[in-house]
Model the fold of this input.
Amino acid sequence: MNCLICSNEFLEKPSWTSLFMIKQPQVICDKCQSKFEQAKKKDYQKDWEGTKFEGVLDSLTSIYTYNDFMKDVLHQYKFLQDVELAKIFREDFVHLKAETAMIVPIPMHPEKMKERTFAQVDELLIAADIPFSQPLQKTMNTTQGKKSKLDRTQSEILFTVTENVVGKSILLIDDLYTTGTTLHHAAYILKQAGATKVSALTLVRV
Done:
C-alpha cells in the first residue's frame, strides 16, 4: 500500500482490530502519522467576552494543532482537491457514531463550493461513515482571518437556519479553527432559532 501523503509504500502493522474490521485500514505510513500533533486545550471564550457571542458555544474540542505538516496536508486536501485525504482522519471521527446530538458540518457558501468542488467538512464525516444533518446555510462568502477582532465581533451573521432546531442539542463540525468567528456565528444563529446546546469539534486549531 502507498501512503496517501508521501506516496511511499508501507506495510500496515497487523492487529486484532484490523483483522476483524473493527478499525479501518491504515492509509498513511507511520512516519507521516507521527508528524500530526495533538492540539492543546486553549481558552476560546476570552475573545468573545462582552459581545453578543459570549457563551453561545458551550464547548470546543480540537483534535490536532496547525503545524507545518498539517498546513501542507490541508492545502493538498482543500486547495489541490485531493478528497481521498479525508480517509486519513476516519478514526478521529468514528466515535461520533455514538453521539446523541445533531451533527452539523459547517456548510460552504455556494460560490466557495463551486471553487473547491467538494464540501471538505462533509467529506470528513462521510469518510468515517457518520450521518449528519444540515440546518444551516452560509449566506456570506467572506474571509474572517484578515479582519480585526472588532470587525469579527460586529460583522453580519454568516448563516441562516433552514430547519427546525427548537430544543435540539447540536454538535458543529469544522476542519479549522482560527479566529472562531465561523463557529460562534453558527452557534449564535442556532440558539436564536431555539437550539438548547451548541458544542463544536474541529479537526485542527491554529
Observations:
- Strands lie at 59-65, 102-105, 136-138, 159-161, 169-177, 197-205.
- The longest helix spans residues 68-79.
- The first strand starts at residue 59 and ends at 65.
- The radius of gyration is 18 Å.
